[in-house]
């Protein structure tokens, strides 16, 4: 049951100050509902590829799986979860370990934990309260679970209706009321929204009985959304950021793109002896991959007041990958020292200096 899934963090605040010895990896988004800050995204993953990727993510250590009704992969994730929970995990030390270590680490069983699960109601499922309630039931069936940690409205509008229609206001209100009902019935532990702009949120806050726990939005250095995030933070709504590397093909990870940004920041000079000296100070085990720098940006950057922040985590990030190498690389970002790395600070300054604004996903600002 999801009621047993809450993971305690070192602090329950949505903005936690912590140092290298105290890592806050969850946010309390609702009373006793703790959401891990790094989510494994499943957009475009389907079938056996999805099942395999989710199982690998769970094995590596991810504790938050993000999906949506419209992704059409919840059954594949349900299969991965069932296999994960029914398979006993055992470990032994490698054969080349010394005998003393072998004695200390004999075969040991590890208790499986159900991850934090988040899904979303599609615009086509938002046309009535009944449709939303039925959609929730179907999500639970496909994931093979009795209740779920978080469900969001995926979009502030319904399908097959002109974006400028007043109908959207009525439909999203009814849809949210249905989520409130499902929460009260114990089918959902926390409810939220996705792709909501400030005016959508202001409208929702004017009538909701239960405040949205999260707003999942696109956010990265080329689309920082500082004003929207600052509004969410002021209302106690946790922000979950998707597309940390940009859109399809992860353009922000392109080496040429990153190099150009660095040259612009450094005046085209490359940094010379000072840069080489700083780089030399970075231990091999602190080497940062471009993906990990962007994930750090996502976890450290919030509203305008967080520009240049290096001491407080802000919200959560959804990151998608299908290969084992990428899944592991992204997860290892959590093991990095966010707060004492001069190398990271310099790279974040480069990303903060980007003035180009580009949104890669659909923009819901057109929805009335």
Secondary structure elements and pairings:
Blueprint: E1 26-30, E2 33-36, E3 38-41, H1 47-60, E4 64-66, H2 74-86, E5 89-91, H3 99-104, E6 108-110, E7 116-121, H4 129-143, E8 148-153, H5 167-184, E9 188-194, H6 198-207, E10 214-218, H7 226-234, E11 238-242, H8 255-265, H9 272-280, H10 290-300, E12 316-320, H11 324-331, H12 342-352
Parallel strand pairs: 3-4, 3-12, 4-7, 7-8, 8-9, 9-10, 10-11, 11-12
Antiparallel strand pairs: 1-2, 5-6
Structure description:
The chain is of the alpha/beta class and 368 residues long. Helices cover 37% and strands 15% of the residues. The protein is built from twelve helices and twelve strands. The strands form three sheets. An eight-stranded parallel barrel has the order 3-4-7-8-9-10-11-12, surrounded by five helices. A two-stranded antiparallel ribbon has the order 1-2. The protein has a two-stranded antiparallel ribbon with strand order 5-6. Helix 2 runs parallel beside helix 4 and helix 4 packs across helix 5 (167-184). The radius of gyration is 21 Å and the shape is globular.
């Amino acid at each position: 049951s999801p009621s047993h899934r809450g993971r305690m963090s070192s602090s329950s605040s949505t903005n936690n100050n912590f140092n290298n010895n105290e890592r806050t990896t969850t946010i309390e988004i609702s009373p006793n509902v703790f959401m891990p800050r790094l989510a494994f995204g499943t957009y475009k993953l389907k079938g056996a590829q999805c099942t395999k990727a989710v199982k690998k993510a769970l094995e590596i250590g991810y504790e938050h799986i993000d999906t949506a009704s419209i992704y059409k992969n919840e059954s594949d994730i349900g299969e991965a979860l069932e296999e994960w929970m029914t398979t006993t995990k055992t470990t032994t030390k490698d054969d080349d370990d010394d005998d003393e270590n072998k004695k200390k680490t004999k075969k040991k069983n590890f208790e499986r934990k159900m991850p934090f699960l988040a899904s979303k109601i599609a615009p086509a499922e938002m046309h009535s309260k009944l449709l939303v309630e039925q959609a929730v039931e179907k999500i639970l069936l496909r994931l093979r679970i009795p209740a779920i940690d978080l469900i969001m409205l995926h979009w502030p509008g319904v399908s097959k209706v002109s974006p400028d229609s007043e109908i959207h206001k009525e439909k999203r209100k009814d849809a949210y009321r249905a989520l409130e009902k499902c929460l009260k019935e114990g089918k959902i532990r926390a409810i939220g929204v996705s792709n909501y702009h400030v005016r959508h949120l202001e409208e929702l806050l004017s009538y909701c009985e239960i405040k949205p726990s999260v707003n999942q939005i696109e956010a990265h250095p080329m689309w920082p959304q500082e004003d929207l995030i600052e509004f969410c933070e002021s209302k106690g709504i946790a922000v979950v950021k998707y597309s940390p590397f940009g859109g399809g093909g992860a353009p922000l990870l392109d080496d040429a793109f990153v190099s150009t940004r660095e040259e612009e920041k450094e005046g085209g000079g490359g940094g010379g002896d000072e840069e080489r000296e700083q780089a030399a100070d970075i231990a091999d085990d602190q080497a940062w991959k471009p993906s990990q720098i962007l994930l750090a940006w996502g976890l450290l950057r919030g509203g305008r007041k967080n520009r240049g922040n290096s001491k407080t985590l802000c919200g959560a990030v959804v990151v998608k990958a299908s290969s084992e190498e990428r899944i592991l690389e992204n997860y290892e970002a959590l093991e990095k020292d966010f707060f004492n790395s001069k190398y990271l600070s310099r790279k974040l300054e480069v990303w903060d200096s980007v003035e180009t604004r580009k949104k890669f996903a659909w923009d819901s600002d057109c929805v009335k």
